[in-house]
Amino acid sequence: xxxxxxxxxxxxxxxxxxxxxxxxxxxxxxxxxxxxxxxxxxxxxxxxxxxxxxxxxxxxxxxxxxxxxxxxxxxxxxxxxxxxxxxxxxxxxxxxxxxxxxxxxx
Length: 106
Ligand SMILES: [Zn+2]
Hints:
This protein has 106 residues and is of the alpha+beta class. It has one domain (4-93). It is 25% helix and 17% strand. The chain contains 2 helices and 4 strands; from the N terminus they run E-E-E-E-H-H. The longest helix has 23 residues, at 60-82. It is globular, with a radius of gyration of 15 Å. The structure holds zinc ion. Zinc ion binds next to loops.
């Protein structure tokens, strides 16, 4: 957890003033509050980059379900990161450490 101060389109960590971060592109949906590190080519965070498909979020029921899934997935990614287990996506190495998350009914 970090205290952040806004700076233009980015956020600066008060504990690490030399680095500017962006919020994940999924932040406006309230499905993610993780940061994208400075210099990253990704618009989404380390957890959201595992999404293969994002459901139609105009349906409130799907949005609610997606938020619940994202919450659980973020906890999993956090744990895997702490255990220093690989987090490759299928796009990165052809198989991925675990499959991209697919949502039925889209
Ligand atoms: Zn994210």
